[in-house]
Write a structure and sequence with these properties.
This protein is an alpha/beta fold. It folds into two domains: 131 residues, Rossmann fold (3-Layer(aba) Sandwich), CATH 3.40.50.720; 85 residues, Alpha-Beta Plaits (2-Layer Sandwich), CATH 3.30.70.1450. Helices cover 31% and strands 25% of the residues. It has seven helices and eleven strands. Strands 3-2-1-4-5-6 form a six-stranded parallel beta sheet, sandwiched between helices. The chain is elongated, with a radius of gyration of 19 Å.
Length: 223
């Protein structure tokens, strides 16, 4: 995935090292020139010096259509501006903001920010969960974004491959409404066995989507 990290201090170095291990494509933007030089030398990557709340800086950083942007400024207002620019102007798929004031979380969410959280560790966990759904083909939100329809493909190392629908972990409520198994279209029952390469159409609450996809694409050795 292409991940943009805008602003931040010591947490940026941690996130860079973690995401590089997973071979993500990183774009780092920071106002502090000295810290940029440190990050670049330490991690052997290019780092852009500039204010990420400025449109021309984001344009120069070529963040267009990035998968994720993480805004880590100490100022909540700056993070909101960065996230809104990323989504509205540069069509970044998901914007995550670090929020100093917990009261701002609900405001950020109402304004279209996908995740507003206050811990860099939680940010890392969120992105890692997103990396699990890289096979996600399409996601459709309905009923004022309370219900989500997710289309995903089952990998050959997924623990659900070879399992009956009724035997899948049901800790979270979801419904596999349809299975595309070329050339067949299957309306599954409890004893329907999921196979490698199956494309599942899953209905769930929007808040549980990431966890449910993680369950469906969990690798066998994690059982």
């Amino acid at each position: 995935m292409k991940i943009v990290i805008a602003g931040g201090n010591i947490e940026v170095d941690y996130l860079i090292k973690m995401f590089l291990k997973s071979n993500h494509d990183l774009v780092i933007i920071n106002e502090n020139r000295d810290y940029c030089e440190y990050l670049s030398e330490t991690n052997n990557i290019a780092v852009i010096v500039g204010d990420p709340s400025k449109t021309y800086v984001l344009d120069d950083a070529q963040i267009i259509n990035a998968d994720v942007l993480i805004a880590l400024s100490a100022r909540d207002a700056d993070n909101l501006v960065v996230c809104q620019l990323a989504k509205r102007v540069f069509h970044v798929k998901r914007a995550i903001a670090s929020v100093s004031n917990p009261k701002n979380v609900s405001i950020f969410m109402k304004l279209g920010i996908n995740n507003a959280i206050s811990s860099s560790h939680l940010i890392a966990q969120t992105i890692e969960r997103l990396s699990i759904i890289e096979n996600l083909v399409r996601s459709l939100l309905i009923e004022d974004e309370k219900i989500v329809i997710t289309e995903l493909v089952i990998n050959d190392d997924s623990y659900v491959a070879g399992k009956a629908v009724k035997d899948i972990d049901s800790s979270f409520r979801f419904n596999i409404s349809c299975i595309f198994r070329d050339p067949e279209v299957i309306i599954p029952k409890g004893d329907t066995v999921i196979q490698t390469g199956d494309k599942l159409i899953v209905v769930s609450s929007a808040i549980d989507q990431s966890r449910i996809v993680e369950i469906l694409q969990r690798k066998r050795d994690n059982e």
